[in-house]
Write a structure and sequence with these properties.
Length: 463
């Protein structure tokens, strides 16, 4: 019988005063008893709105029913049938805007903790021996560019169909934004490595330090016998505002700042990654990347950390959980403010940032109310570091070195409904197509593209 509680089962977390001194995971997950209790809240709705809200179509009521019965392994394999990276999705997906946002429970209380239950199942199975069903080779080869969530999903799905899949990753380690962008305290890198290990056990080959467009071109990948190429190279090119002072010392893009910390381990004393210490930090932006940057800055020793966002709290695009954690950790949100210049000292190092107060006007094309400057409201905030977290776009290298590959005005690859680019046999998905977006949307694109690549190759083979 379903648990009729209106609230989610509480979850254990590190205390704020403790966690700002370390990079250990903040949220500690359910015990088996807590998971079963939370699963008991599911109403098993007939029309399954939660599944419709999932970009990779996880059979949510089915796996939750198994958790409620204590059949955790069965629940895991239900999730895994459509989601290649459940331990990751359970931690970083914006569930409040997707599956949990559609949960009927949320109409009169709190939605079922779907993400937390997914994480529990994945973690439960993480160290258990799993049955790896390696598909019989079908004699066809596919190359995948990039090793982020979209590429990992596409590669996994293709490997399960018998394709010989090779991933070409520019960095020295696979994972993409999962490794360089999302901090350890939200997504432990050991979790990412284990998910990638599982793909390699399926037969996926991963080649690192391979910058496609420099070491090899897309055309050369095709010449090597690959019948299709999937480009999931992400959006690693940072955006800046174009304001005075952005070239000063200690102005970072969020990409650079997070990469130095997450991938290059600047937070560990036995690593020599260069990162100047900061007393007061301004992070410009309001998304998850801004929250990650601010929370990292706090853990790196900054006493004062400000998030400067030009709209109000209601428009803040970051996950509610991340905003909640940031506020708990003493990060100050300066909403309805926008930078106009960054000011340096005699050594060209940041010593303050000038911002202007904003008010909300009419809605823009996205439906959000446009911020409007309040004349004469400029004021100075004393900081010694500025991190720009206002978005990214795809690196133009692949476009520049590949004939017949069209991009839009933002530098994103143009694809059709089948995720096919304008170049024959080349498909794309994730941030390389959409610009910076969520992990799960990138995974959904990789999943759909894999199905389309299979159809493309099979149609060519049979005709």
């Amino acid at each position: 019988m379903a648990d009729m509680s209106l609230t989610k089962t509480p979850i254990t977390e590190q205390k704020p005063e403790e966690r700002i001194c370390n990079f250990k995971e903040v949220t500690l997950g359910y015990t088996a008893e807590e998971a079963m209790r939370e699963a008991g809240r599911c109403l098993n709705c007939k029309n399954r709105p939660c599944t419709a809200g999932c970009p990779v179509n996880v059979k949510i009521p089915d796996f939750i029913a198994k958790v409620a019965e204590g059949k955790f392994e069965e629940a895991y394999y239900i999730i895994k049938s459509t989601n290649s990276l459940p331990a990751i999705c359970g931690r970083v997906c914006p569930q409040e805007n997707q599956c949990e946002g559609k949960c009927v429970r949320g109409l009169k209380g709190e939605p079922v903790g779907i993400g937390r239950l997914e994480r529990f199942c994945a973690d439960y199975m993480m160290d258990k021996k799993k049955d790896i069903h390696k598909a019989e080779p079908n004699g066809h080869k596919v190359a995948v560019v990039g090793a982020g969530p979209s590429s990992l999903t596409a590669a996994g799905d293709l490997a399960k169909l018998g394709y010989e899949v090779t991933i070409y990753e520019a960095f020295h380690t696979a994972g993409g934004v999962l490794m360089y962008g999302i901090p350890e305290f939200r997504l432990p890198k050991e979790i990412v490595r284990k998910e990638i290990d599982a793909l390699e056990e399926l037969g996926v080959k991963i080649m690192t330090n391979m910058v496609i467009g420099k070491v090899l071109s897309v055309d050369e990948l095709i010449d090597m016998g690959n019948e299709a190429v999937f480009i999931g190279s992400g959006a690693g090119l940072p955006r800046f505002m174009g304001i005075e002072g952005e070239n000063l010392i200690c102005v970072y893009s969020a990409n650079e700042y997070l990469t130095r910390i997450n991938l290059m381990k600047a937070y560990k004393q036995d690593y020599s990654t260069p990162l100047l210490s900061s007393e007061s930090v301004a992070v410009v932006g309001g998304g998850n990347v801004a929250m990650d940057s601010a929370r990292c800055a706090k853990r790196m020793g900054a006493k004062n950390v400000y998030i400067i966002y030009r709209r109000s709290m209601d428009e803040l695009p970051a996950r509610k959980e991340e905003v909640h954690h940031a506020i708990e950790e003493g990060i100050e949100l300066k909403v309805l403010n926008n930078p106009v210049r960054i000011i340096g000292d005699e050594n060209d190092r940041v010593n303050s940032i000038e911002v202007v107060s904003m008010e909300l006007g009419e809605p823009d094309e996205s439906g959000r109310r446009s911020p409007v400057e309040i004349s004469g409201s400029e004021h100075i905030i004393d900081v010694d570091t500025v991190i720009m977290a206002i978005g990214t776009s795809p690196n133009p290298l692949i476009k520049k070195t590949t004939t017949g590959l069209e991009t839009n005005k933002r530098g994103c690859l143009v694809v059709d409904e089948a995720h096919a680019t304008t170049k024959e046999g080349v498909y794309a998905g994730g941030d390389a197509v959409t610009g910076a977006a969520t992990v799960i949307l990138a995974m959904g694109a990789g999943k759909n593209a894999a199905a389309e690549i299979d159809k493309y190759i099979m149609d060519k083979t049979n005709n």
